[in-house]
């Protein structure tokens, strides 16, 4: 036969009551632990015995945290479910106060914009004027402050740019000083080359004249190349020097060709007078 329903009533036997309390307490603590682990719930269990002894259980968080959450939740729920009539009256009064303040602020704003000034007295208009002057003074002060800050920043930027410009000038000057000796060396080499070319041309002209003239003819004097013109112990521009050398070369060639033409004309005249072939030998004209 199965067990019948157990009547829930106080156990009169003190020993049986204590044994039943111990068994049921342990089962209750076990069930609280199981539901906290299985369902990941926050569980708080408090049990006081007939003698006033405390038995408690709390899950992951502490007992104090769970009790604070309970108090906070129960207070909010009571405030929603049981609204206080005094609070409602206070809310009505506060609404009226806030509405009047809003209307006053809107009216003051319109007056500052120059609207609804018909109802104002002279004293109120003077107060409004002083308020506008005070506001304008603060606005100008703030504007001047911003302008000064902007000018200061621009001055700092100008100083920074000047420093950068000085650094770039130093770098450029250093680079020019490094490149200048190389340019001078190159110009000197160019002038020496032109000098050698001029000497070679002069020697060639002299050899041609010696070969075409008789032995009695006087040799053409060799003109030494002009030295490099200087002005106050400073060398002239290499380009101008090369141009002057080219002009000297062309002049010398013209002079050589003119002398050669005059010599041939004399030979032709002498041969015509003497009736010979006009051949030129080393001994003279035949």
Automatic annotation (TrEMBL):
The keyword Methyltransferase does not apply. Residues 88-178 form the K-box domain. Its main location: nucleus. GO terms for biological process: positive regulation of transcription by RNA polymerase II. Residues 1-61 form the MADS-box domain. The keyword Protein biosynthesis does not apply. Keywords: DNA-binding, Nucleus, Transcription, Transcription regulation. One of its GO terms (molecular function) is protein dimerization activity. InterPro entries: MADS-box/MEF2_TF, MEF2-like_N, TF_Kbox, TF_MADSbox, TF_MADSbox_sf. GO terms for cellular component: nucleus. Transmembrane segments: none annotated. It is found in: Nucleus. Residues 204-235 are annotated as: Disordered. This is MADS-box protein.
């Amino acid at each position: 036969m199965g067990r019948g329903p157990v009547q829930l009533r106080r156990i009169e036997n003190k020993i049986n009551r204590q044994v039943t309390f111990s068994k049921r307490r342990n089962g209750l603590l076990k069930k609280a632990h199981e539901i906290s682990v299985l369902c990941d719930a926050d569980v708080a269990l408090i049990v006081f015995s007939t003698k006033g002894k405390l038995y408690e259980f709390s899950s992951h968080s502490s007992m104090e945290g769970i009790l604070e959450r309970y108090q906070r939740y129960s207070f909010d729920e009571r405030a929603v479910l049981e609204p206080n009539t005094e609070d409602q009256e206070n809310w009505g009064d506060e609404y009226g106060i806030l509405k009047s303040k809003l209307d006053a602020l809107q009216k003051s704003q319109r007056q500052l914009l120059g609207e609804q000034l018909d109802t104002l007295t002279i004293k109120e208009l003077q107060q409004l004027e002083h308020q506008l002057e005070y506001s304008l003074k603060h606005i100008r002060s703030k504007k001047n402050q911003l302008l000064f800050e902007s000018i200061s920043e621009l001055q700092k930027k100008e100083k920074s740019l000047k420093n950068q410009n000085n650094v770039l000038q130093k770098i450029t000057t250093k680079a020019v000083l490094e490149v200048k000796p190389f340019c001078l060396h190159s110009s000197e080499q160019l002038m020496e080359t032109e000098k050698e070319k001029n000497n070679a041309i002069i020697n060639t002209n002299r050899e041609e004249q010696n070969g075409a003239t008789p032995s009695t003819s006087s040799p053409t004097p060799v003109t030494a190349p002009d030295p490099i013109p200087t002005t106050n112990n400073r060398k002239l521009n290499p380009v101008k020097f090369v141009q002057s050398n080219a002009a000297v070369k062309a002049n010398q060639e013209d002079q050589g060709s003119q002398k050669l033409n005059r010599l041939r004309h004399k030979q032709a005249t002498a041969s015509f007078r003497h009736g010979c072939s006009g051949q030129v030998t080393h001994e003279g004209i035949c």
